[in-house]
């Protein structure tokens, strides 16, 4: 006898998922609180290749696995035709964001683009010719891609999580948090004097913008993880597995 759907007891219930997400949210809050003061480099939200980036990367990776679980658990009628690719693509997007969180590929690519003639023109127009600000221009360089990804995430969550309104609401909050992070990524740097001339005022402004931006990103990754895993749990426990001889 074989089952054509995973056995529900192998998937955590929504109540368990909520408890686990509460723990993750507590960790998020602790990281933000630590960064209100002089955070050690290992826990500094504004630095790369430390616990905070690995933590966010892990959440995005698990969210991608959650999207795959949603695809596997979704009724076959919803996986027919062109719609069958939505969850795997969403999983691929989340895993790609996970890799980028650790590898900072977007900043590396932005630096490469800024090294050319077009980059010199953009630097002169938008950054006052200050090359120290190049890494903060990626939201502008990749704005079309960012808009497309946000639209895809929002439309997928809205259409596919109708049976899980709480999960859908949490996922949409995550998308809003990502948009907030994107909007705050650069302004404190773009509209400031040259970096080498920064004083206490400019540095303080940058630190606060960075803290809010990174906090929004933490919320976004946690929300995406919660949305996909909660929906997978709801799908798994919506009906008992069917059994075939």
Walk me through what this model shows.
The radius of gyration is 21 Å and the shape is globular. The protein is mainly α. The termini are close together. Helix 1 runs antiparallel to helix 10 and helix 8 packs antiparallel against helix 10. The protein contains 10 helices and 2 strands, in the order βααααααααααβ. A two-stranded antiparallel ribbon has the order 1-2.
Summary keywords:
2 strands, two-stranded antiparallel ribbon, mainly alpha, 245 residues, 10 helices
What structural class do you assign from the helix and strand content? mainly alpha
The count of β-strands is: 2
C-alpha-based Rg, rounded: 21 Å
Low-confidence stretches: none
Number of helices: 10
- The helix/strand order is EHHHHHHHHHHE
- The geometry reads as globular
Biggest beta-sheet profile? 2 strands, antiparallel
How far apart are the termini? 4 Å
Helix coverage percent of residues?
55-70%
Whole-number mean pLDDT: 84
> How much strand?
under 5%
> Order of strands in the sheet with the most strands?
1-2
